[in-house]
Design brief:
Layout (H helix, E strand, L loop, with lengths): L9 H6 L8 E14 L5 H8 L9 E10 L1 E3 L5 E4 L1 E4 L6 E3 L1 E5 L6 E5 L5 E9 L5 E12 L2 E4 L7 E9 L4 E10 L3 E16 H4 L15
Antiparallel strand pairs: 1-2, 1-14, 2-5, 3-4, 4-7, 5-6, 7-8, 8-9, 9-10, 10-11, 10-12, 12-13, 13-14
Length: about 220
């Protein structure tokens, strides 16, 4: 983000400084006011993604959740930070897993989605005038074995994440929208949370937080 990083709210600067250099992990705990879906025909696709912890195939209101941001070096030596969200929905919890991976050249961040890192998206970060953080996804790619193809716009989607800090209540606020260019909104959620920080060198990465499979391409 360069100089843009200094324009973020101080609480956001700390939260997004989580990494191997800082030695800190961050755990957010809060409530999603709403988890929503688009038209009915997208539900089978969300259900399919849910089998690999990609998106959330159920809706809800006032849903307790936890987000775990833990840095580690993956099996290819790249700095990685987990973005694992667990939603405590009626009938059983659901996870939405992602790992942000810094490319070997340090010139871009990829967001690998799901338990097996089959989907990769370039991320673009920006600071808003009010000190909030705006993250937009770029090109999506599907990767498995020798296959490395761009996901067509017809079946792909763009994600927009807005995260801010509300000084009045001492909580982070987050809003996520996933939209397909042709059929419109697919999925999203909005809510708030508090954050706590731990020393990752002493706590490590808990079992089950890392993906089942790691993709070598970045």
């Amino acid at each position: 983000m360069g100089a843009d990083f200094d324009r973020l709210h101080p609480q956001l600067r700390r939260r997004f400084s989580v990494g191997l250099a800082s030695g800190e992990a961050c755990t957010g705990r809060g409530v999603m006011d709403r988890i929503w879906h688009g038209a009915a025909f997208v539900k089978p696709f969300l259900a399919l993604g849910g089998t690999r912890n990609i998106l959330v195939p159920r809706q809800g209101r006032h849903v307790p959740f936890v987000i775990e941001n833990v840095p580690y070096a993956d099996s290819f030596g790249r700095e990685t930070v987990t973005f694992v969200r667990t939603f405590d929905l009626p009938g059983g919890s659901r996870r939405f897993d992602a790992q942000m991976v810094l490319s070997p050249k340090g010139d871009r961040v990829l967001d690998y989605l799901g338990t097996h890192q089959h989907l990769a998206s370039e991320l673009h970060f920006g600071a808003e005038p009010d000190g909030s953080l705006l993250i937009r996804s770029g090109e999506h790619r599907f990767r498995e074995g020798v296959v490395d193809v761009r996901v067509p716009e017809l079946i792909g989607a763009t994600a927009e994440v807005r995260e801010s800090y509300d000084d009045a209540v001492g909580r982070f606020r987050i809003r996520v929208r996933v939209v397909n260019k042709y059929v419109g909104p697919l999925f999203g959620y909005e809510g708030s949370f508090t954050a706590s920080y731990t020393n990752v060198r002493s706590c490590g990465v808990r079992s089950g937080l890392r993906p089942v499979r790691e993709e070598s391409r970045a």
